[in-house]
Amino acid sequence: MSALAAIFHFDGRPVVPTAIEDMLERMASRAPDGASSWVEGNVGLGHGLLINTPEARHERQPLAVLDGRWHMVWDGRLDNRDEVRHELHLQGVTPRDDTDPELVLQLFLLYGETTPQRLLGDFAFVVHDRSEQTLFCARDHVGARPLHYVLTEHFIAIASTDDALIPLLPDGARPNVDRLIYAALPLLDDFDWSEGWIDGIKTLLPGRFMKLGVGRRLRRQQYWAFTVQPEDRTLATARPDDAVAAFAAVLERATRDRLRAPGAAAMLLSGGIDSACVAASIHRQRGPVSSALACSVISDPEIDCIESAAIRSMLATLGWPAAQIQVPSFTGAMNEAEVAALAWQRPHPVDNSILLVHALASLAARAGQRVLLHGVSGDLAFYGPDDHYLHVARQHGWRAAFTEMRLMRERHVYQLGRGVASLLTRALWTHAVPLPVKRLRPIRWRSARALATASGLDPKLLRERHIVERIRHAWAEADRFARLTPAEQHAVVLRPPGIVRGFEGYDRVGGRVGVEMRDPLADVRVLEWLQRAPLALRSAEGRTKWVGREYVRCVFGDTVAWRSDKSHLGWQLVAAALHHADESMTQDDGIDMTERGYEQRVALRWRQSLPS
To answer: Is 257 helix (H, G, I), strand (E, B) or coil?
Structure first.
């Protein structure tokens, strides 16, 4: 995680050097190791450095080659370094050093706009060609690194954060209403996800590049996307132990790549299966680190909860040092007032709902860590439909399906307590009732109106944006989604907004404290392996994430691997933020003091904080 900045004037007007410097200054928290810029005529590039790999200590950006014809700024971590070096060697190219941006720029000179599809890792980069007067920008496959831009008739400005672009908006900063509606009603994700939180600031979507030239010539292109993967028949017939070993190999390679840091990495240990998978993978490595700082929120010992018990059990096995916030007492590494200060320092409709992540990233930063591993993509990586028992029936008969449904009642995270009759009724409604009949149900109108009203959105906005109709449309889309095959569903949930939703907030809160967030479960190799894996490796024995749980069991045992419930300790941090909210945020405005009320207040404060 570094800070990128670029300005390119289409009409040849010169860039003012201080414009790049001002952008970098607004992203200073992402770049504690210095900033530099290059400005020539109608183009300017800037780079703020966070030393995130051993090689990054030798980076000098913006990078130039061929007598200054090409200049590049890079934010990322290149995982297929050996393959890139080998390709350069075959082409007779000798890199000037071993840094990631040098390898990528030399590869770009060979392959131009096909370069992104030859890279593996988390990245965003910008290349300027002085000869052709073009600017090329690209973002990684899954969106682990951000790239925002403002595009007007006269110029394009690019930055790693939207905050850095606000002064360049021609008409001032106004919130994107669709994004605020989404924050209140997450099922309404039917807007253009290239639109950012602020009107006029766009986001380059994952797996895409953009090329611009003088005269405002513009071309956007998708170079990669999640597609439906055929089932791997060798996995379908493999013994369970062999399937887990295959999963271990791909996950541990992804983790090893993400452990490439200037020192020992930190680990966001939440107590869930996803973070347990990553922690187990770190523990099994024979790579550059043997330990990691575990950052966690845990309950006080006298009211130990299931997540906290799992964390303590894992730490007993790992032997790692730990930085912990204990709740509700708020003893340990951070007290209640400090947590609340994080919330209200820079309120945001999404970021404040992941206050737990913000707090743990802050603990990592206090300990001098530059990298924090996590598993935010786990739910989508291990995706399996809730009605997977129907697929069990098709493959093994209804007797096996009934057994699966009974186990789901006891073990499935999202189906706890549901009986066989309830699950069969749901399956009948989902797959047997014609879609037009579902859309005609009067109750859907009433339910949609009730949901719209409960969102707390202004009644005028509900009418102007046709919220009730959009809710019904979202439900209709969900009905169609339920009729897809599991492989088709998996491909859909991984595409934007999919995984990038998690990265978006994690990158912002990590960037505020100078900590790079990395998720091995979002590695393209891991995701495609899980897409090809038979459904039984993701949903089996009444549980979700079966192969991940079995992998965790091998390291941490049954107690951690096979639990199903959650305690949601993050709400304790939100409650602290509410407790410390100032008077203007706690006055009686018709919004209750629940988590939803908290998020709405944060959205209000964020809108008020935007400069006009």
So the answer is: helix
